[in-house]
Design brief:
The chain has about 180 residues and is mainly alpha-helical. The protein contains eight helices and three strands; from the N terminus they run αααβααββααα. The protein has a three-stranded antiparallel beta sheet with strand order 1-3-2. Helix 2 packs across helix 3 and helix 2 crosses helix 6. The radius of gyration is 21 Å and the shape is globular.
Length: about 180
């Protein structure tokens, strides 16, 4: 009996597994695209006066990013980024990250994205790589597991050192722009 004839006896979970096994990259790229585009949508919504939906995006992304304005890109303003002293002048003269992260911008400076420049760079590159891999995967050479490990290693080191720094207070002078 052919596979088409056998499909009638396959459970819906198995059918989903079969479908997902064939289309997982499209699913992951779609979700990654939404994950990348939503933080860009927040400043657009703020510029258009849709404050409620924009604040929801800022709130959701606050769980995955510190959203410090001196480390974020601003859209719809004269500059793409601002120094800590410029943010302090426009918002509050504080070094408290909890207060600084509340500044989302204004009509003169523009509106910050819902995540930092590092997050934007990291997740956008993952999304673009996923799209390119989907296009060129049949022409690519298989990468051994240790090769994948070598590609992931710089991001793992960066993330781990920043996690330790955030919890241990290491590099506070660097984070505040003193160095």
């Amino acid at each position: 009996m052919s596979i088409v004839g056998q499909r009638k006896n396959i459970s819906s979970n198995d059918q989903f597994g079969y479908w997902f096994g064939r289309h997982w990259l499209a699913v992951v790229n779609t979700f990654m695209g939404l994950f990348v585009i939503l933080p860009l949508l927040a400043p657009l919504l703020m510029a258009e006066g849709w404050i409620g939906p924009a604040r929801i995006i800022y709130w959701v992304y606050s769980f995955v990013c510190h959203q410090l304005p001196e480390r974020s890109y601003f859209l719809f303003g004269p500059k793409i980024s601002y120094s800590l002293s410029e943010i302090q002048f426009a918002w509050q003269n504080t070094l408290d990250a909890g207060i600084l992260r509340q500044f989302i911008g204004n009509s003169q400076m523009g509106w910050k994205m819902a995540w930092s420049d590092r997050m934007f760079s990291m997740f956008t590159s993952i999304w673009v790589f996923g799209i390119l891999w989907g296009i060129f995967k049949k022409k690519s050479v298989k990468l051994p597991w240790w090769g994948a490990f070598l590609f992931i290693l710089p991001m793992a080191i960066d993330g781990t050192t920043h996690l330790i720094s955030d919890f241990a207070g290491i590099g506070v002078k660097f984070a505040r722009g003193v160095i």
